[in-house]
Amino acid sequence: LVLPTYPIAHALDLAAFLLVLFAMPGLYARQSERAGRLGLLGFVLTMLFLVGSAELLMWEAFGAPRLAADPATSYLVMPGVPRGPAGGVMANGPLGGVGRYAVLGALTVVAPIVFGIATLRARVYPRWAGILQIAGVVLLPLFVLVQVGLARVGFFNGDLSAIGLGYGTVLLGYAWGGYALWRDAHSASARAAVTASTVERAM
C-alpha cells in the first residue's frame, strides 16, 4: 500500500477493467443468440465481476494508499498495525473480508468460467477468447508457483501477484474477443462501402 508503484499499478488495472466493462455489452450482444441462457448468465455474472473489480481497484488506487500513508488512519487498512482489534479492519474485517473478498472472490472464479464456456459453445469468437477466460482461473495454482519461484530468485517485488496474472489472462481473453468483434465490424463496413461504390458505378 505504501509503495509508490502501488496506486499507479492499480490505476492502470482500473483503466483496463473500465474498458472491458463498457465493451462487454457489445461482446455479449454479438453472440447472444447462439450463447443461450448460459451466455446470459455468464454476461450478468461478468458484469457484476467487472463492476465489483472496478470498485475495488478504484479503492486500491485512490483510497487505501492515502489512508495507509497517514499514521492516524493507517490502522484501518494495514494489517498488523496495532490499534486495538481494529487493525486492518477495512482490509480484513467484515467490509473487506465479506463485502469484497468473499463475494467478489466468488464472482472472480465463477464469471470467467461461465462466460468462457458460453463463448466456446457459441462459436462466434475465436476459441482462444473463451479459453483464456477459463485459463485465467484454472491456472491460478500455476501462477502461485510462478510468483513463489520469482520471489525466490529475487524478481518478485510486490507488484506481481498470482491474482494479477490471472486477471491479465482473463482480460486477454476479453481483448481477443473485442478485437475479433472490431475486425468483423471493420470488414463489414469495408464490404458495404465497396458494394455501394459498385452500385453507383453501375448506375
Describe this structure in words.
- The model has no long low-confidence stretch (mean pLDDT 82).
- The termini are far apart.
- This protein has 203 residues and is mainly α.
- α1 packs antiparallel against α3 (94-122).
- The chain is built from six helices and no strands.
- The radius of gyration is 21 Å and the shape is elongated.
Keywords:
203 residues; mainly alpha
Main sheet summary: none
Distance between the termini: 68 Å
Helical fraction: over 70%
DSSP strand count: 0
Give the helix tally. Answer: 6
Q: Which structural class should the secondary elements be placed in?
A: mainly alpha
Kindly report the average pLDDT value.
Answer: 82
How are helices and strands ordered from N to C? HHHHHH
Overall spatial form: elongated
How are the SSEs ordered, and which strands pair?
Elements: H1 5-69, H2 89-92, H3 94-122, H4 127-138, H5 140-152, H6 162-202
Helix pairs in contact: 1-3, 1-6, 3-4, 4-6, 5-6
Can you describe this structure in just a few lines?
The protein is mainly alpha-helical. It contains six helices and no strands.
